[in-house]
Amino acid sequence: MTPVPTSIVVPTVGRASLSALGAALAQQTRAVDVPVVVVDDRPGGADLDLDAHGLDLRVVRSGGGGPARARNVGWRHTRSEWVSFLDDDVLPDPDWFEVLAGDLELAGAAVGSAGRVRVPLPADRRPTDWERGTAGLEHARWITADLTYRRDALSAVGGFDERFPRAFREDADLALRLGADRGTVVAGARGVTHPVRPADDWASLRQQAGNADDRLMRTLHGPDWWTRAQAPRGRIRRHAATTAAGLLALAGLATRRRALAALGAAGWLAGTAELAWARIAPGPRDAAEVRRMLLTSAAIPAAACWHALRGELAHRRAAPWRGLPDLVLLDRDGTLVHDVPYNGDPELVAPVPGARAALNALRERGVRLAVVTNQSAIGTGRLDRGQVDAVNARVEELLGPFEAFYVCPHAPGQGCSCRKPAPGLVKQACGELGVDPARCVLVGDIGSDIAAAEAAGVPAYLVPTPQTRPEEIAAAPRVAASLAEAVETILRGDG
Question: In 316-405, which residue ranges form alpha helices assigned H by DSSP?
């Protein structure tokens, strides 16, 4: 049987439904024999108590950054051709994995394959407003409740835009950046069930925060993004009219202009009543539902306008999302460890302050790490390769794992293409690790590091030491005071 070329990524905030999802994956008609990465997006606390159900399960943390960040952390911890995203509250059909295999075989040149989402509604009564809203997922496009993307496509656009903090619009944004409206995401035959989660009386009011995300969508994709994403426009214009009427009533009261206050109040009441009836009319019209609709309908217009204004101010100059690099290349001596000239003794290896914590911060976000280092002492005969490898092993022991160590063994003047400032070592690392140089960053401590990166098309940060010449600092495009500061800047996406 041909292996399924995917990994499964499940972001979670620890909901009880995660256990049911794991059991459903374990009971598939075709055994799930691919990695399953569960991304714990809780801000902190105890580890998830999960039954692996015999799956190849790995749990990583994303630190409470929201579903977009959680998914990014998840796919960066995979190495498969495809990445299959599932939400933690869906139940895959018994043949989901078997049908997924067929969907990916039929995907051709597409960058993504979308599953079918079903939302079960009560059979004995009309659905509530909240249940009807959830049922809309059945017709939404490109939702990551069940969506598989090519990993290289995710990498090329930096994955999900983490400026979308909620499970809202981040999936449509990614799909539009990947050209889904031009047919690059195809419909698959597999299916999942998405039960309606319980909700309190004020859930619909909290949902109005999504109006800020709509403003970000407009900035990034233009005013026609609604059409491209085939998304409903919503009621923001009506909400604005209702809110304006309410403000007019308050202004009339404040200025003791009764006619103005009455006009504004009438407009506000009319708008609120229209919204409430639009939500009550479809049923079930029991006392609890009617009370909930009346209370929230009075508050929703103002809340929607507030969030839309907040989003406009926050996102009016938002730049296209770039995301984290896939790979960070690091010089060794002077950058990761204190520079001991021609060191062949592992006992002399001493990391620079904060190095391990900084590197772990990158690893936790799924960023790959590799070392690129000139070791001319091999070429001059002062050291042999075994001694250099022993020092590298000690560096890894102290600072954690790296994808690889790329070593130039040549002395100056030997005419090689790998010795920095030549770009050969950097190009070799990107090529062998399968990373586009544009999705890579290099951190070094001298001008030759920066020159090698620039010649290879890789952005670079200079972290000066006392040995760094002033002219090298002046010429560097990005300078950080320490390795930790460089990593913080990379993780913020500021460079």
Answer: 355-364, 376-380, 385-399
Q: What is the structure's pLDDT at 46?
A: 84
Catalytic annotation, pick one of 87, 181, 333, 449: 333
CA dist 3 and 212 (Å) reads 42
**Integer Cα distance of 418 and 396 in angstroms:** 22
User: Which listed residue (41, 331, 445, 449) is catalytic?
Assistant: 331
pLDDT tens, residue by residue, 225-271? 999 999 998 899 999 999 999 999 999 999 999 999 999 999 999 99
Alpha carbons 207 and 294: distance in angstroms, whole number: 16
Classify domain 327-492 at the CATH topology level: Rossmann fold (3.40.50)
Do residues 127 and 88 make contact, with C-beta atoms less than 8 angstroms apart?
A: no
The architecture of the domain spanning 6-198 is: Alpha-Beta Complex (3.90)
Share of the chain above pLDDT 70, in %: 100
Per-residue pLDDT tens over the stretch 293-317: 999 999 999 999 999 999 999 999 9
Q: What would the pLDDT profile of 104-128 be if each residue is shown by its tens digit? A: 999 999 999 999 999 999 999 999 9
Cβ–Cβ < 8 Å for 475, 451: no
171 among known catalytic residues: no
- Regarding beta strands 112-118 and 146-150, do their DSSP bridges make them parallel or antiparallel, or are they unpaired? antiparallel
For the chain, how far is it from start to end, CA to CA, in angstroms? Answer: 45
Catalytic residue flag (residue 146): no
pLDDT, position 45: 76
Question: What are the sequence ranges of the domains in the chain?
Answer: 6-198, 200-319, 327-492
